[in-house]
Amino acid sequence: MKLITILIPAYNEEDVLEQLYERLNTVMSRADKYDFEILFINDGSKDRTLEIIKEMRKTDPRVSFVDLSRNFGKETAMSAGFDYARGDAVIILDADLQDPPELIPEMINYWEDGYDDVYAKRRTREGESWFKKWSSAKFYKTLQKSTRIPLQADTGDFRLLDRRCIEALKTIRETQRYTKGMFSWIGYNKKEILFDRNPRAAGETKWNYWKLAELALEGITSFTTFPLRISTFFGVFVSLSAFIYMIWIIFKTLYFGESVAGYPSMMVIILFLGGVQLLTIGIIGEYLGRVFNETKNRPLYFVDEYNEEKVQGQRDRF
Ligand code: UDP
Ligand code: MG
């Protein structure tokens, strides 16, 4: 029998786990042609998430878990999941039931038809602010313009991946991960299915804007790319101010004449070029910062515990 891993990154999800398990159970009992593994990645939760998972495992041997040594973020949690998943196919599911497990049988059907990556595209997104929807739409559009690789808009991480996609993803070990881009980048046979995204079943989203801003700040202060970042922002600021100033000087000169010959044009050019230079140095800095992070060549994560077994140091899985 083929084994299907349901990969669930979970960070402080104590409120939804019971409900999630029940919904999954119903779906799995109907798809009785397959063996299932429910693989929870506990991403350093501070609530009872891990205890609840351990309780589940006592009564249901299909439940496995990887307990990360701290909170690494969803992207890294997923890559831990790819390393530890045993299935012939892996289905990535959010713990909060925003991705309905009832879609799983349809995904499996397409997988049987020979598709390697069956991804669920959101037809609607209930319970999310217009700003989140708007910014996400803009983000996808801009990203698509910048690359030749076809991206899947309005698609989250909810998808079924064949073993060979998982093997491909396991070879990508970069530390600053954007997994959605990787799904597109690896290619293979893709199939789209549509669904209506539900609001969270319970608990809170981990990505409110305040937290995102906090995270950005933490990133700036804890790494040494700090001066490079500053030049980007400063460059944008100076360029913008110089532009506004330029318009003002042109206007002033046309209507009131020049006080000192050549001064306005010189001032505008100096300021404008200065801003542009700072901006481009900043952009180079952004990339240099990424290179810096990758050359450190650190492991992506550390595992505290895998199915009640304490893990020593880094266990390289691939
Ligand atoms: N998550 C995680 N680590 C984190 C943040 C989130 O593993 O640091 C998990 C979370 O438990 C959930 C999924 O990632 O299963 C999506 O998170 P969330 O629902 O908060 O994000 P949203 O749906 O609001 O984008
Ligand atoms: Mg969610």
Would you kindly provide a written description of the structure presented here, covering whatever features stand out?
The protein has 318 residues and is an alpha/beta fold. Helix content is 49%, strand content 18%. The chain has ten helices and nine strands. A nine-stranded mixed sheet has the order 7-5-6-4-1-2-3-8-9, with helices on both faces. α9 packs antiparallel against α10. The protein is elongated. About 4% of the residues have low confidence. The structure holds uridine-5'-diphosphate and magnesium ion (MG). The site of magnesium ion (MG) has 5 residues, from loops.
The order of strands across the largest sheet is 7-5-6-4-1-2-3-8-9
Give, in order, the helices and strands.
EHEHEHEHEHEHHEHHHEE
Separation, N- and C-terminal Cα atoms: 24 Å
- The overall average pLDDT, rounded, is 83
| Shape estimate | elongated
Key phrases:
binds uridine-5'-diphosphate, 9 strands, 49% helix, 318 residues, binds magnesium ion, 9-stranded mixed β-sheet
Task: Give the arrangement of secondary structure elements.
Layout: E1 3-10, H1 17-30, E2 35-42, H2 49-59, E3 63-68, H3 74-84, E4 89-92, H4 104-112, E5 117-125, H5 130-145, E6 155-162, H6 163-170, H7 179-186, E7 190-197, H8 209-222, H9 226-256, H10 263-295, E8 303-306, E9 309-310
Helix pairs in contact: 9-10
The chain binds uridine-5'-diphosphate and magnesium ion.
Residues 94, 96, 98, 200, 205 line the site of magnesium ion.
